[in-house]
Amino acid sequence: MTSTLTPPTGTGSGDDDRPPRESRLTWRQRVSRFDVKASPYAYVAPFFLLFGIVGLFPLAYTFWVSLFDWDLLKGQGDFVGMDNFWAILNDRFFWNSIRNTISIFLLSAIPQLAMALLLAYLLDQGLRAKTFWRMSILLPYVVTPVAVAIIFSSVFNEADGLVNNLLNLVGIPDQQWKHDTFLSHIAIASMVNWRWTGYNTLILLAAMQAVPRDLYESAAIDGAGAARRFFSVTIPSIRPTLIFVVITATIGGLQIFTEPRLFDVSNAGGIGGADRQFQTTVLFMWELAFFRRDFGEASAVAWLLFLLIVAFGLVNFLLSRRVATGDARGGRRAARRAARKGADA
Amino acid sequence: MKLSRHTKVAAAVAGAASVALLASACSSGGGTDDAASDEPITLTITTFGTFGYDDLYEQYMEENPNITIEATNIDTGGNARTDAFTKIAAGSGLSDIVAIEEGWLGSIMEVSDTFVDLRDFGIEDRSGDWVDWKYAQATDADGRVIGYGTDIGPEGLCYNGVLFEEAGLPSDRAEVAELIDGDWEHFFDVGRDYQEATGKAWYDHSGFVWNAMVNQLDEGYYTADGDLNVEGNAELQERFELLGAATEDGLSAAQAAWDWNGGKSFVDGTFATFVCPGWMLGVVQGNTEAGGGDATTGWDFADVFPGGAANWGGAFLAVPETSEHQAAAAALADWLTQPEQQVAQFEAAGTFPSTVGAQDELAANPTPNEFFNDAPVGEILAGRSVGVVAQFKGPDDSVIQENVFGPPLQKLDRGEVSTQEAWDEAIVLLDELVG
Fold first, then answer.
1. Most A CBs within 10 Å: which of B85, B211, B414, as the mutation test of the A interface?
2. pLDDT tens by residue, A296-306
3. Residue span of the signal peptide, if any (chain B) (predicted)?
């Protein structure tokens, strides 16, 4: 922005009058120019300052810690270079935690976003008592993750939790929600979904409401059914928001900790089940740092997780952009066609 | 639009609140180190589990009007460990008095200079109050003493008299003591009889039994010199095989510890015995009541423990160097661990005292515990504490207990692995996690 607004300076400009004219500016004018140029940076500076203190510095410091033998209690030890990283990359529990994290992430993110889209679409229709519905859908988000985890932990209790009791009613025997790997992932994903679906719904709803209504009208006149309108008008129009939601869901999903930590009360060491069947990467990091007291390796895990999240975020960004753009072209064309037809008629 | 204005108001309120928090966080502090003065002092204390201190705090504040006690109690010792470790690592945030559990005292001893030397506050004059091993446990390699001993964990056997009767076993606590008296093999053999008669499990899960079996040895996961002592430790492996054979015979109820199906397993006869250090009595009662049971459920407490005397747990009160009121904090910790207060603590929470005076008091004045079928638990525990010597706890003791032996034992309980496989897995885990 700035570069296009500021007139080009230097010898290349060929404008000989410029330097003298600048010197002719009064003090006031110069201050005012400076104000225009510099103020925006001053306004955004607090954010970057804060980000530097609470974001960038810890990131860099974590990397620093990861280069040392670092005991939680005793503090900094010998410099070991990248040894902590190699140790982690050769640790079967690290890879186990990555598998669990990705599995839980996929089990939560996909149904959650699909559900949120559908709910947002429904809420976008003319409903009575709109605010009531919208607020109700956000309610689970208000509950702290700890409470959610404790309640769901009881709901998925194997001996006589609610879920198994309901399953028994329809003739299905008790399921091993806390011992079976896949079932425990489903149980944890359901906690995430319960809490986050409403939040994502509201964000998507806000975006949907910004879609010009005439697009729908034209599409409808053009003979597009509800499903066609949803996929060809709604989805492409809310693309930026959709990308935002997907990326925040990715970041959140890969950092999942509270739910697996509290899903199994009997293992104090934070291993996520006797076979580490639901130990996520953050939980593994927690075990390393606060139970096994190996801060160096835990910091290495933190960095590897950071890189993984960046990688996932990029893949998601590209994927969701491609998906949405593919539809968008068709959608826009359809809308334009519809608009043209409307004008012709 | 209305919504966005609300959001702004909310944001402003949140902002103001956080500023206020910051301000108050900064303003706390200052103060003097002079316990004798009457200047108002606020002391913070962090305990865990059932400590039974609430009434004692009230009493102390009444007797010392300038002292205000702000107490925090953390649900389990494991979580208290995390809390303390994190704050030691951060270099701030520890309360003026921190309760330290015996199981992770070994780790704390590696950084014992985080806590003040209580000899500066006269603990040496009281050293004769405690059983000598308790005082020795709180003394580091340099001779600094960092903790006032609160309780110790002599172990007796909790058993369900109603279930014993149904199985045709004696239910009277003296007869039960006679029946069980012997080594672990004998304990498991009685369990096999019970299991044959009823088809039900004998103990709740292997982890606690294993803990008791290890704690009973002169040297556990570490030698007294501090060397790892698991691989090639024939005594340990022999005990593991005994436990494994019993578990394979169906003596374990494969319960999830600290949950026990919301306490219901204590009520519905899932298991008939439970290893009970003094402080566990409160846990048994609490869980039975949470599961809908009461004194009629049948839990009782016998003066016997397989393999002889054993200790599990017990705690210390330490004062961190970061405390701004070290003298006042030490005075409170000192008071809380006096024999008289230890008796009160026992009455509130069942924690068995570590001072000789309080132990004698409990032995001399047996008060029946209503919940445990009127068993004189204080007298019984006093008997159980005879011959108890605490084992040396190494820096990774709790990791070995929880993360090395815990998982294979759970799988053994569920019949997923054999005893040999469980032991092998524990050794592999030991290499990976501690080695």
1. B85
2. 999 999 999 99
3. 1-25
